[in-house]
Amino acid sequence: MSWARIMAPLAGGKGDEAVLTAAAALAGPFGAEVAAVHTPADVADLMPWMGEGFMGGVQITAIESLKEASATGERAARSAFDACAAKSKTFISLESPVWAGLSMQGRLSDVVVFDDAAARGRGPLAEAFQQIVADEQRPTIVARPGFNATGVALVAWDGGKEASRAARTALPLLQKASRVVIFSAPTATSRKFDPADLQAFYAARGVAAEVQTGGEGGDAAPILLEAASRLGASLLVAGAFGHPRLQEYIFGGTTRSLLGAENGPSLFLSH
């Protein structure tokens, strides 16, 4: 089991270089291809605001400005792509309908890499991040400073569907990690589970994982972040959006807390 295609959505901005650097670092141990996907704003998104059957001077100017910005962004994205050190790489610039193209590229990739800004809901790729993680349910890495594809990995485990999916989907990456720790916080859930079951699952697939438990109280995020910091983990594997997204948006949720953590580890998320 391996990964062959790492997707890196690009906005044509200053964050592109860091995303491509992380994607290249992830692709290296697998000999995988980096697919750089320029994701511009979509002209079609303006149409509902234009008024049916009417195109005045202001509307035309807005469309032309958006097209010009897209072309400028593509040039910047291509420049970052040219500087990317990945041994195998391809560049794709999406056209309208952009979201449909982004979805398709995500479906044809093993994992998608975003930067911290998009994960925090900032910048032009914030909506793309939500689409890929929650709607398309693609395995996603939030690459933060210090991302290391072969470092210490902490797997958050509560026996639930989302955590199980993340734990399984991350297996190729965990097989490359220098150390894998399965971490559970029994006080943060009412679910009955045994971390040794996941440990046995990994052992059968060549991953010698340790098991640790800890934490007090009902909020899992600070418990996981403390454990990641203590263990020097460069990656935290976690299920995403265990509750409906609207509910998580309103009430917070572990996913939102992990995404908003200052100086937290890089994240591997799967919904």
Would you mind describing this structure in some detail?
The chain is α/β, with parallel strands linked by helices and 271 residues long. The protein has 12 helices and 10 strands. A 10-stranded mixed β-sheet has the order 3-2-1-4-5-10-9-6-7-8, with helices on both faces. Strand 7 (179-184), helix 9 and strand 8 (209-213) form a beta-alpha-beta unit. Helix 10 packs across helix 12 and helix 11 (245-251) packs across helix 12. The model is unreliable at 246-252 (pLDDT under 50).
Observed structural traits:
ten-stranded mixed sheet, 271 residues, alpha/beta, globular, 12 helices
Which overall shape is indicated by the principal axes computed on the Cα atoms? globular
Q: Indicate the percent of residues in helices.
A: 40-55%
Oligomeric status of the shown chains?
A: single chain
Q: Would you list the SSEs in sequence order as H and E?
A: EHEHHEHEHHEEHHEHEHEHHE
- Distance from N terminus to C terminus (CA atoms, Å) equals 20 Å
What is the overall pLDDT average? 88
Strand and helix layout:
Elements: E1 5-10, H1 16-27, E2 33-38, H2 47-50, H3 57-83, E3 89-93, H4 98-107, E4 111-115, H5 116-119, H6 126-135, E5 140-143, E6 152-156, H7 161-169, H8 171-174, E7 179-184, H9 195-203, E8 209-213, H10 220-231, E9 235-239, H11 245-251, H12 253-259, E10 266-270
Parallel strand pairs: 1-2, 1-4, 2-3, 4-5, 6-7, 6-9, 7-8, 9-10
Antiparallel strand pairs: 5-10
Helix pairs in contact: 10-12, 11-12
